[in-house]
Design goal:
Strand content: 15-25%
Keywords: Signal
GO molecular function: carbohydrate binding
Domain Periplasmic binding protein: 42-327
Radius of gyration: 25 Å
Number of domains: 2
Oligomer: single chain
Shape: globular
Order of helices and strands: HEHEHEHEEHEHEHHHEHEHEHEEEH
Subcellular location: Cell envelope
Number of strands: 13
Distance between the termini: 90 Å
Protein name: Monosaccharide ABC transporter substrate-binding protein, CUT2 family (TC 3.A.1.2.-)
CATH superfamily of the largest domain: Response regulator
């Protein structure tokens, strides 16, 4: 009888052991469905779901990773640096090895990057550069200076004669890219401001500096503080309304508008279009958002700088996988983030207007023609 009881105890222990092993995932997955033990993972943090651009990036990331052996979790910070840090900390508890992060605020994101680096996680700054820390390993970006230069050049190429009213707008002063965009635009516009082709109408700081071909970061910051949209549609709208209210009829007519991205371009364009003293306007943008593509088709927005997110995402994923496989990612240059030179991979940009919209965005497979009306 004693021997029989021992056999029962042994069988019970064996069954519990088997149940424990089954619960741990003997099929090679952990409890959250990720491959292996969850240690080889890519965490991605994007700024907000409130802008079509970042929702588009989420889709492209999921598509790019669908055929890989690496799992991914994508979180949104909703325009909050505190939420951004919390998102990073959440991903760290899940054992990520690579963090791809597009910071809401470049300086504020330094703390999140440092937390990841302290855990041995490779930090890839995505599209926007994390500043003020040496905890950034790589930067994947479009050539932001080239984006601004393309916007400025479009305005220059569209202008005739002298005295053309120029309205300047910029992104958020917390975003390093906003400075790079403005730097690129200023490099092209300033000579045409100096020779009288354009007359700045909405920034006293820009007027005071209009004879300087190259601006310091502090000087750019003074201008941007006057014309920032903070990447916010409503703020762009309110600022444009305020500028037009203060402007005399002579400061309107055929106007030229440097708008930093598509969302703000649409808001600003709507304001200028509703002003009876504005005869016509040329307005820039970037990101090739669907709504702005339709605006370009309809003649309500002049151009956008197309940044093919498929390529940027592809570069990011290739870089992350290279790190996970123990290799050194390929880079094409570097950007100084005020502490260190961050190795970077740059992606080219394309200017899109009515003339090449179909070829650049539809024929390339980026969008479907059925997503738009009036497309010829």
């Amino acid at each position: 009888m004693k021997k029989y009881r021992k056999l029962i105890v042994f069988a019970t222990v064996l069954m519990l052991l088997l149940a424990t092993l089954t619960g741990c995932g003997t099929d090679g997955t952990d409890d959250d469905g990720n491959g292996g033990d969850g240690a080889t993972r890519i965490g991605i943090v994007l700024p907000t779901k409130d802008e079509p651009r970042w929702v588009q990036d989420e889709t492209r990331f999921n598509e790019a990773l669908a055929d890989t052996d690496y799992s991914v979790e994508i979180l949104f910070s909703q325009g909050s640096s505190a939420s951004e840090k919390a998102n990073v900390e959440s991903l760290l508890t899940k054992g990520i090895d690579v963090l791809i992060i597009c910071p809401h605020d470049g300086d504020a994101a330094a703390a999140a990057a440092e937390a990841a680096a302290a855990e041995g996680v490779t930090v890839i700054s995505y599209d926007r550069l994390i500043t003020g820390t040496d905890a950034v390993d790589y930067y994947v970006t479009f050539d932001s200076i080239a984006v601004g230069a393309a916007q400025g050049q479009y305005l220059v190429d569209s202008a005739e004669g002298e005295g053309n009213p120029l309205y300047l707008y910029a992104g958020a002063s917390s975003d390093n890219n906003a400075f790079l965009f403005f730097e690129g635009a200023w490099s092209v516009l300033q000579p045409k401001i100096a020779d009288g082709t354009f007359v700045i109408k909405n920034s006293s700081e820009a007027v005071a500096l209009q004879d300087k071909a190259e601006l310091t970061r502090d000087e750019m910051g003074r201008i941007i503080s006057q014309v920032t949209t903070n990447w916010d549609f409503n703020e762009a709208k309110n600022k444009a309304e305020s500028h037009l209210t203060a402007a005399a009829a002579a400061d309107k007519g055929d106007v030229y508008i440097l708008a930093p991205n598509d969302g703000t371009a649409r808001s600003i364009a709507d304001v200028f279009a509703s002003d009876n003293d504005v005869t016509s306007y040329v307005v820039t943008g970037q990101d090739a958002e669907k709504a702005s593509v339709q605006y370009i088709i309809d003649g309500k927005q002049s151009m956008t700088v197309f940044k093919d997110v498929r390529t940027l995402v592809k570069d990011s994923i290739e870089m992350a996988i290279s790190v996970l496989e123990g290799n050194t990612p390929q880079t094409t240059g570097s950007y100084n983030n005020n502490v260190t030179d961050v190795p970077a991979k740059q992606t080219e940009v394309i200017v899109v207007d009515q003339d090449n919209l179909k070829a650049a965005l539809i024929d390339s497979g980026y969008y479907e023609a059925s997503e738009f009306t009036g497309l010829e």
